[in-house]
Amino acid sequence: MKVGFIGTGSMGSLLIEAFLSSGALQPQDVLASNRSTLRLVQLEQRHPGIQVCGSNRDTASRSDIVFLCVKPLEFKALTDEIGPCLHSDQIVVSITSPVQLYHLESSLPAKIAKVIPSITHRIKGGASLCVFGDRLNNEDRRSLLNLLSFIGMPVEIRENHTRIASDFSSCGPAFLSYFIEVWIGAAIEATGIDEALISTLAGEMLLGTGKLLTEGNFTPQELQERVAVPGGITAEALNHLRCSLEGVFERLITTTHNKYDEDVSKLDLLFGRDGITQNLLDR
C-alpha cells in the first residue's frame, strides 16, 4: 500500500514521522510533495527511501491513500489540481477540520475521509478523530483505522462534532501547556524552585492524571473528590480556581467554533454553493 502526503509542514511531517517510527509504514511506502523543496530534501535525508514527488499530481496519482495536509483556504486550488488524476478506488484524507466531506466529495472522484490528528501522535498517544464519507466501504474503514491505530487511538465521530472534539484532542495539548506554563512561572517567581524540577513534576502529574482518567476508572469529579479533602489545602485552592475560571471554557469554545464557522463559510464560497447544495441533496 502506497500512502501519499501532500503538504509536509508541521502536521504532515509529524504524521510521516509517526507512521514510520511506529512501523505502520516503511519509507518506500511513503510518497510526499510540498511547495518547499528544502522540507522534502530534509525529509528524504532523515528517511532514505521515501519517494519525493515532483508535483502534487504525481503524489496523488501514485497513492492508494493520500493525506491532504494543507491550510483550509488552499484546498480548492489543490482539489482542482489533483482531481483529474484521481480515481474512485483511491482514498483521500483531509486532516483540516473546517474542510467538510461535501467540499471534497463535490470535487473529487475518490473515497473521502477526514482525520484530525494530534501532536500527541509523536509519542504514539492521543486520539485521532475520524469522519468517513459514504463512498468508503467497511474494508476501507478498517484499513484506515488499522493504519491510525499504530500512532494513537482512532475514534469515529460525527462530522458536526469535529470542532468540539478537536478542542480536546488536537487543541487541548496547547491549552493545557499554556495553563502549565503560567502555573510554573508563578511557582518559580513565588518560591524560586528550579524550573527543570517543577517542569518535570508538572509533566509527570499530567501523565499520571491522564492514566487515572483513561485507565483508572476515575471521572474528573471523582478524582477531585479523592484529592481535595474537605477543609484541606487542595479544596480551598480548588474553590479559588472554580471562581477564577468561571465562564473561561464557554468563551474558549465560542472562540474556536466562531473561527471554524468562518472558515467553513469561506470554503463554501470557494467550492461553489450550487455544487455543494446538489451534493447534499444527493446524500
Descriptive key words:
single chain; 283 residues; alpha/beta; eight-stranded mixed sheet; 13 helices; 8 strands; globular; disordered C terminus
Can you walk through the features of this model?
The chain is built from 13 helices and 8 strands. An 8-stranded mixed beta sheet has the order 3-2-1-4-5-6-7-8, sandwiched between helices. The protein is α/β, with parallel strands linked by helices.
| Uncertain runs | 275-283
Mean pLDDT: 94
- Helical stretch count? 13
| Alpha-beta classification | alpha/beta
Q: Count the E strands.
A: 8
Helical content, roughly? Answer: 55-70%
The end-to-end span amounts to 29 Å
Major sheet: size, sense and barrel closure? 8 strands, mixed
Task: Indicate the radius of gyration in whole angstroms.
Answer: 22 Å
List SSEs in N-to-C order.
EHEHEHEHEHEEHEHHHHHHH
Q: How is the secondary structure organized here?
A:
Elements: E1 3-6, H1 10-22, E2 30-33, H2 37-46, E3 51-52, H3 56-62, E4 65-68, H4 75-82, E5 91-94, H5 101-105, E6 111-116, E7 127-132, H6 138-149, E8 153-156, H7 162-169, H8 172-191, H9 195-214, H10 220-227, H11 233-244, H12 248-271, H13 273-282
Parallel strand pairs: 1-2, 1-4, 2-3, 4-5, 5-6, 7-8
Antiparallel strand pairs: 6-7
Helix pairs in contact: 8-9
